[in-house]
Amino acid sequence: MPISERFVAQTDGSRYEDRPISHITTQQNSPDAPYQAGMALKEKGELDAAMAAFRQAIQLQPGDAEAHSELGHVLCLQGKWEESIASFRRAVELRPSLLAAQAGLCAAMNGLVPHWHIPMMNDRLRNDFYFSALKGAVTPDSSVLEIGTGSGLLSMMAASLGAHEVTTCEAVPLIAATACRIISENGLDERIRVISSRSIDVTVGSELTSAADILVSEIFSNELLAEGVLPSIEDAKRRLLKPGACIIPATGSIMIALFAGDDLASNLVVGDSCGFNLRHFNSVVSTRRTVSGCELSVELLTEDVEAFRFDFEKDSVFPSAEKTLRIPVKTPGRCLGIIQWIRLAMGKELMFENHPSEKAATSSWHYCVSLLPAPVNLAENQVAVVSAAHDRNVPWFSLQGIEQLNLSV
Prior knowledge:
Elements: H1 3-8, H2 21-25, H3 33-43, H4 47-60, H5 65-77, H6 81-94, H7 99-112, H8 117-121, H9 124-137, E1 143-147, H10 153-160, E2 165-169, H11 173-185, E3 192-195, E4 212-217, H12 229-239, E5 241-248, E6 251-260, H13 262-268, E7 272-273, E8 276-277, E9 288-291, E10 299-300, E11 305-311, E12 321-328, E13 333-346, E14 350-353, E15 367-378, E16 382-390, E17 395-404
Parallel strand pairs: 1-2, 1-4, 2-3, 4-5
Antiparallel strand pairs: 6-10, 6-11, 6-13, 7-8, 9-15, 12-16, 13-14, 13-15, 16-17
Helix pairs in contact: 3-4, 4-5, 5-6, 5-7, 6-7
């Protein structure tokens, strides 16, 4: 029976959501009663009770695709991605044509395994950087710890380069299981140990046989910091690494510049369209955006500036920070805001940078932009005064003013 019919077809003509929940759940003479109760509870936002009702419905009718699908939706709303995926998959097995289950399965998988994993694995420049860094560090005596397994690529690089021991941590069980399969199919399962756990829950003497002398990680977000990279490295240096351990990458920097460009502006702000002024709509859209660097041209009005630099090998604590940057204007233009990218380095020779002026067909990281409330015309002999801050999780940049460059010296 279609959901809509199941939901309204009652002997007294009333809808379940108009009736007390206690009345719905006591309709024991109907095999549909738990499902109907779940629907009503879900409508009311009582997710735990709705989940229990849908589970009861499945116990009574294991082949009910709609009940499996609705349970998947409730689990999805609770952020229980793996359980949600299992429920949606069962619903799709029972009825492949059930659109709600197909769409729910896609949403749950995107929540658990964001789509950026694929371009990350296909990013040749990024992969070359990590392989070169590992090649320069790994010896037959090396014990390597990786934080953030993903596909297992970096661990397989380390193992193929001859590391004595490779251990990798992955917080998402589904990704960890998939990495195990990939590692096994590449013939490296006897040389790499996958731990389905966050690194902060790993201990030496238990999951790790001994402290590692190389740490490699690729848990950097578009903004560098958002995936908890600083606390993870702090914890690893304190508990899981040998003194003086090699860390790959050794440093990570947040780079910025002021930018302009009609091409990028057409994607970030609205002006006139079809003869109508739509500019007020800009006021209801966040000024903080992430944009792909693959399609749009960017004009940089200043030199590149290293706003924040994190020396993962040298430092053990990374506190929040605030500073004021005075950035000379290099090229006059209509400034739209501040563009941000990341730079990873091993010493002075080996570096990866998703620079806005360099287009890549596939990129692990996108640019972040902080738009000005309104474009500002910048001229030569001017200095942009930029406020820069980060709270260990999010960097923030804003234009505080424009100064004239003092040329009297």
